[in-house]
Design brief:
By secondary structure, the chain is of the alpha/beta class. It is built from eight helices and ten strands. The radius of gyration is 23 Å and the shape is globular. The N terminus is likely disordered.
């Protein structure tokens, strides 16, 4: 072997290996395009937003109202941002800014095969704060309440307040019961007396929450989650009053 051949061989060994080609179709998905008539509501055609998720995907949502205080509303299992629409419109008319979203892999949102529901709540609060410097209140229904409480316990700065509607103490690997001792924001636990275990879970989380800025309201009936605020049935009047009183006390709407 000649000296020139040896030098070529050494140079080849020292050269860095080329980077592997990115598999076809592995590019990160972009934000979802607006869907005309989403939720059966033409008003949402120009109110749709794409929230950057915590794990490389986008969450689909809508943003109503122009107030200084933002309500981030979080859906229950088998539901999407559309489940909040009637209440969101009421709160926007009352002077609040309302952000609703679909969880990762659900509804119109993209899918990232990692993370927890509380990560999506964190992403939604971050998005709300990019568009407004005002207070943020998190309102979660059922599993959305569990995720909201877990996220609220670690958010820095914390939200202005948290509302749990029929939140279970534990859901899908996340424990609100373990998180609430770290809460510093005012919190309302709301559940219906005849709604399975959820009233008992509300009491347990209330007992585990430190300080005096906690409220427990158990209303009659069996309404669950978002239905406490969107369906006319036993307990609905009491639930609406409890939530309205809590919001006015902790984060009243500001123009």
């Amino acid at each position: 072997m000649t000296l020139f051949s040896c030098l070529l061989l050494l140079a080849a060994c020292a050269a860095p290996a080329p980077a592997p080609a990115e598999p076809v179709g592995s590019a990160k998905p972009g934000p979802p395009s607006p869907t005309p008539g989403w939720c059966g509501e033409p008003q949402l055609d120009d109110r749709q937003v794409a929230l950057p998720g915590e794990h490389g995907t986008y969450l689909a949502g809508y943003l109503l109202g122009t107030g200084d205080v933002t309500l981030v509303v979080v859906p229950q299992a088998s539901a999407t941002a559309c489940s909040w629409l009637s209440w969101a419109k009421e709160q926007a008319a009352a002077g609040y800014r309302v952000l609703a979203f679909d969880f990762n892999g659900e509804g119109r949102s993209g899918r990232a095969d990692t993370g927890h529901a509380s990560d999506d709540v964190t992403a939604a609060v971050k998005f709300a704060r990019t568009g407004s410097k005002g207070p943020v209140v998190i309102v979660g229904a059922s599993r959305g309440a569990t995720a909201s409480l877990v996220a609220a316990a670690r958010l820095d700065p914390p939200p202005a307040a948290v509302i749990s509607l029929s939140g279970p103490g534990d859901y899908a690997g996340e424990s609100a019961l373990e998180a609430v001792p770290r809460l510093t924001a005012p919190v309302l636990y709301l559940a219906a007396a005849d709604d399975s275990r959820f009233a008992a879970d509300a009491r347990a989380m209330y007992d585990a929450t430190p300080g005096e800025r906690r409220t427990l309201t158990v209303v009659p009936g069996r309404l669950h989650g978002t239905a406490l605020l969107t369906i006319t049935a036993e307990g609905a009047t009491e639930a609406a009053k409890a939530v309205g009183d809590f919001l006015r006390a902790t984060a009243p709407p500001r123009a």
